[in-house]
Amino acid sequence: MLLSIQDLKVAFRMGRANGQMQRTLAVKGVSFDVPENSTVALVGESGSGKSVTAMSILNLLPENAERQGKILFQGRDLLQTRLPELQAIRGRDIACVFQDPMSSLNPVFTVADQIMEPLIKHMGMTKKQALVRAEELLNEVGIPEPKRRLGAYPHEMSGGQQQRVMIAVALACSPKLLIADEPTTALDVTIQRQVMELMAKLKETHKMSLLFISHDLGVVGEISDQVVVMRHGEIREKAPVADIFKNPQDSYTKALLACRPSLTENPARLMVIDDHIAKQMGQGKAAVQEKPKDPDAPVILEARALKKSFFFGSGLFGKKEFKAVKEVSFKLRKGYTLGVVGESGSGKTTMGLTLLRLHEPTGGEVLFEGQDLLKLSGNDWQKMRRRIQVVFQNPYASLNPRFTIAQTLVEPMEIHAIGKDYNERLARASALLKKVGLDDSVLGKYPHEFSGGQRQRIAIARCLTLNPEVLVLDEAVSALDVSVQAQVLNLLKDLQDEFGLSYIFISHDLAVVKFISDEVLVMQNGDVVEQNETQALLHAPKQEYTRRLLGAVPRGYQEATTADLAA
């Protein structure tokens, strides 16, 4: 057995209270094995303890962490291994690939420097030897023009290329175990597919084992041999991947499988974890009927040949134009949702920000109830801005960390003179928090005190303070766990039904787009390549690019296997 984790407990010291050290138990007696040349997936929501378990292997935990139990790597207990010996194992025998490569790669070192470092440290190579091997590794992970890219810095590469560089760094010393912590979560579906296929191929080539951490069972089903399902620091179920998908035993595993949006089913609402568990116990709620859309609803927002270019210096006096958005046109009806999909770099986010004039357009028209937003200025534009709001992907970055939730919600109302005084605005803020599933107790807290799903609810509540009619949602649920994602998507549908909101929903997840959108616009290289009603487009796509996007969506164990990926 390559790795055996036995009765692992991890606690975090939280400081003293009443003379006693307070501890929070994050992992509660976890045991599982990782055989040689196999892939084991750790699955669960945020807070389940899966990342803490994995990071315990190499003790990549904060200083206030306390570990008990056994972690046997090739028979050697890593919990009893001294730090110098553990450092020798890190990168050489056990390597890690993390979720966000940009925060893992050093921004001031070139790609070559970062791949060469473990080769020189662990393998004893000279700089010349390490440089040759670095080029070979870049070629192996599929980076085009590897020799030229050796001198690049991380910020000069796309997200998918950065993740490939991280994999090259991890594979530099041919480790026996690769720990991959959510390595595809932030990537669009086609890049996600490429990274999954690459990892499966490299696992077979290098004869290594893979510990794959994810909250997405669709991804796990395609890459894993064994699955370990965790919740609240405990293992709820562990079994071969086929058994997990075809005959799950635990109610939580069944709920995880059920709450992910599907390309084949079209429910009025997504089930969340607690709903599904309650249903299995015979306490389920009555099915919700979807509110029919008004076929004669007026067009509230229309884009006509919208264009956005960026200009860069070229030569001494020259300018180079990059056309990010090329004559995009669409109509959005009141109470409807337009889904915008495409790979990274397709122009979908730039298009959304240009609609809001967060990027000033270089051409076209944006008509809001017949009035061209691009011609408005001063007070006229300020008045219009309250009617069109935006929700970004990362709510922690978009919420002011120094503002309480009360300040966050009241400030927009003060700026736009909504409400006669502070008390009236605070009452409105409180009412809106209830709408998004929170209560008055959060008003005095700060953003860092909330989970990602709660922060996204607060961001949505902030938008609603201004009584908007259109929301631009830019990857608003892509970083959330499947259950939290389901809660936010259900919330968006409820708010749309109650307030008649119209959404422009930008996403790389076609299953999510299918659930929430009435019409889909597909973008590639700044162009709209296909546009149709959601059902029609997903069932009979006309363009090869759309078919490729659909083909890249993870579908779980039934439709793909590790062998298929590695082929």
Q: What would you say about this model in short?
A:
The chain is an alpha/beta fold and 567 residues long.
Describe what you observe in this structure.
It holds the Pfam family oligo_HPY. InterPro entries: AAA+_ATPase, ABC_transp_ATP-bind, ABC_transporter-like_ATP-bd, ABC_transporter-like_CS, Oligopep_ABC_C, P-loop_NTPase. The chain has 567 residues and is of the alpha/beta class. It folds into two domains: 32-65 and 75-252, Rossmann fold, CATH 3.40.50; 299-559, 3-Layer(aba) Sandwich (Rossmann fold), CATH 3.40.50. It is built from 23 helices and 20 strands. A six-stranded mixed β-sheet has the order 6-7-8-3-9-10, sandwiched between helices. Strands 16-17-18-13-19-20 form a six-stranded mixed β-sheet, with helices on both faces. Strands 2-1-4-5 form a four-stranded antiparallel β-sheet. Helix 7 runs parallel beside helix 8 (189-206). The two termini are 26 Å apart. The relative contact order is 0.11.
- What's the total helix number? 23
Mass-distribution shape? globular
CATH superfamily of the largest domain: P-loop containing nucleotide triphosphate hydrolases
CATH class of the largest domain: Alpha Beta
Low-pLDDT segments, ≥5 res: 559-567
Family: Belongs to the ABC transporter superfamily.
InterPro entries: AAA+_ATPase, ABC_transp_ATP-bind, ABC_transporter-like_ATP-bd, ABC_transporter-like_CS, Oligopep_ABC_C, P-loop_NTPase
Protein name: Peptide/nickel transport system ATP-binding protein
Keywords: ATP-binding, Cell membrane, Membrane, Nucleotide-binding, Transport
